[in-house]
C-alpha cells in the first residue's frame, strides 16, 4: 500500500510501501503524479534499482531527453545519465558539476522539462555529516507570494531562456573545467521563449516559470528594465520561506517536477568524497498542457504523455 507522508515543509513528501523495481500499478502511478503536483519533490527511500529499472520507471512520466554532450551515459541504459565526481583510471565516470546553481532543467527547450528522476548510488559523508544536498524552491508559493501589482504587470509577458547562460556561469563563476559550447552545440540549443507565468499541468494553478540559471531577458521590457525585474524575481523566488533541502541517503530515488520548482545541487564536498547519481530527465509533451489532459489521463488510466 503506497503511503505519502508530507515533510511538513514548503516542498517534499516521503513515499513508502512501494518497490520501484516492479512497474507501478495504474492507481499508484495516479497517486504519485497527484502527490508530485502537491509536494513538488517525492522521496522513495531504500530502493534497489538497476539503470534499466530507473529508465522504465521514468518513461511512465514522459519521453527521456539525452543531453547535447553525449558522454556519461549508463552502459546498460543510455537514457540514464551519470553525475559523479568519481575518477576511474584517470577518467571521470560522470558529469562532475551538474546542476550546481539555481535552475530548472530544460527551461531552455521549446518543450520544457517535466520530471527529474535522480537515484543516489554514492553519497559523500564527512565526520558523519552527509554532504552534496540538493536544494529546491517552490514556484507555486513564489507566484502566490508576488505582490499583486507584479502579478498584473507580468501577466502575459515572456522570458527568453538560454542554455549557454548556465554553461558560461559554471565556467566563469564556479571554476568549471567544462569547455565552451561549440558552435554546433549552441546551434542545437538556441534561446527559447516561455511565458513568465504558467498554468501547472498537474495542479492547474499558476506558477512563476523563470529561473536564474537560464532566464536572460523579459522580452516585453527594455534591457535595463528587464535586468532590474529579473533581479527582483530571482531574489523573490529564492527567499528562505520557499526553500526545501534534501539530504541524500544511498538508495534514495528522488523525483521532482520541474514546472513548479527550481533546484540547486550543493558542491560542498571534495574530490575524494564521492557522489554518484543516476539521472533521467523526463520531458513534458504539448498535450500535457491541454486543460484537463492529465487529470483525464489519470482517471482513464491512460498514458500521461
Ligand atoms: C540536477 O541538476 O539535475 C542535479 C541535481 C543533483 O545532483 O543534486
Overview of the structural elements:
This protein is an alpha+beta fold and 305 residues long. It has one domain (55-250, 257-296): Double-stranded beta-helix (4-Layer Sandwich). The chain has helices at residues 26-39, 51-59, 139-145, 148-154, 163-173, 183-188, 223-237, 293-300; strands spanning 3-6, 13-16, 41-44, 64-65, 73-74, 77-84, 87-88, 91-92, 113-122, 125-126, 129-130, 134-138, 158-161, 192-195, 197-199, 206-208, 215-218, 243-246, 253-257, 261-265, 276-283. Strands 1, 2, 3, 4, 5, 6, 9, 19 and 21 form a 9-stranded mixed beta sheet that branches. The protein has a 3-stranded antiparallel beta sheet with strand order 18-12-20. Helix 1 (26-39) links the parallel strand 2 and strand 3 (41-44). It is globular. It starts with a strand and ends in a 5-residue tail after the last helix. The model has no long low-confidence stretch (mean pLDDT 95).
User: Using only CA atoms, what is the Rg?
Assistant: 19 Å
CATH topology: Double-stranded beta-helix
- Strand coverage percent: 25-35%
Distance between the termini: 25 Å
Considering DSSP H and I runs of 4 or more, what fraction of the residues is helical? 25-40%
Taken in chain order, the helices and strands follow as: EEHEHEEEEEEEEEHHEHHEEEEHEEEEH
Work out the count of structural domains.
1
Ligand catalogue: succinic acid
Largest sheet: 9 strands, mixed
The DSSP helix count reads: 8
Shape: globular
Work out the number of β strands: 21
> Briefly, what CATH class?
Alpha Beta
Structural class: alpha+beta
Overall average pLDDT: 95
Specify the CATH architecture: 4-Layer Sandwich
What is the subunit arrangement here? single chain
Give unreliable regions as ranges: none
CATH superfamily: Clavaminate synthase-like
Amino acid at each position: 500500500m503506497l503511503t505519502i507522508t508530507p515533510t511538513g515543509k514548503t516542498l517534499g513528501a516521503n513515499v513508502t510501501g512501494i518497490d520501484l523495481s516492479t512497474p507501478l500499478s495504474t492507481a499508484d502511478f495516479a497517486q504519485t503524479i497527484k502527490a508530485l503536483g502537491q509536494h513538488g519533490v517525492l522521496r522513495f527511500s531504500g530502493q534497489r534499482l538497476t539503470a534499466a529499472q530507473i529508465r522504465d520507471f521514468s518513461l511512465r512520466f514522459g519521453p527521456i531527453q539525452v543531453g547535447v554532450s553525449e558522454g556519461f551515459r549508463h552502459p546498460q541504459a543510455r537514457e540514464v545519465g551519470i553525475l559523479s565526481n568519481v575518477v576511474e583510471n584517470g577518467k571521470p565516470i560522470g558529469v562532475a558539476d551538474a546542476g550546481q546553481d539555481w535552475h530548472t532543467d530544460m527551461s531552455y527547450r521549446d518543450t520544457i522539462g517535466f520530471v527529474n528522476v535522480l537515484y543516489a548510488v554514492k553519497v559523500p559523508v564527512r565526520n558523519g555529516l552527509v554532504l552534496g544536498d540538493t536544494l529546491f524552491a517552490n514556484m507555486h508559493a513564489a507566484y502566490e507570494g508576488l505582490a499583486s501589482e507584479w502579478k498584473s504587470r507580468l501577466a502575459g509577458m515572456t522570458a527568453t531562456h538560454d542554455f549557454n547562460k548556465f554553461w558560461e556561469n559554471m565556467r566563469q563563476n564556479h571554476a568549471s573545467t567544462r569547455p565552451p559550447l561549440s558552435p554546433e552545440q549552441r546551434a542545437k540549443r538556441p534561446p527559447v521563449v516561455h511565458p513568465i507565468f504558467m498554468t501547472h499541468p498537474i495542479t492547474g494553478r499558476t506558477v512563476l516559470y523563470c529561473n536564474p540559471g537560464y532566464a536572460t531577458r523579459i522580452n516585453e521590457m527594455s534591457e535595463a528594465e528587464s535586468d532590474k525585474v529579473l533581479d527582483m524575481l530571482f531574489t523573490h523566488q529564492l527567499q528562505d520561506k520557499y526553500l526545501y533541502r534534501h539530504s541524500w541517503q544511498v538508495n534514495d530515488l528522488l523525483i521532482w517536477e520541474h514546472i513548479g520548482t527550481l533546484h540547486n545541487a550543493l558542491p560542498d564536498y571534495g574530490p575524494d568524497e564521492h557522489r554518484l547519481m543516476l539521472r533521467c530527465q523526463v520531458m513534458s509533451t504539448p498535450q500535457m498542457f491541454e486543460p484537463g489532459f492529465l487529470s483525464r489521463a489519470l482517471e482513464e488510466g491512460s498514458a500521461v504523455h
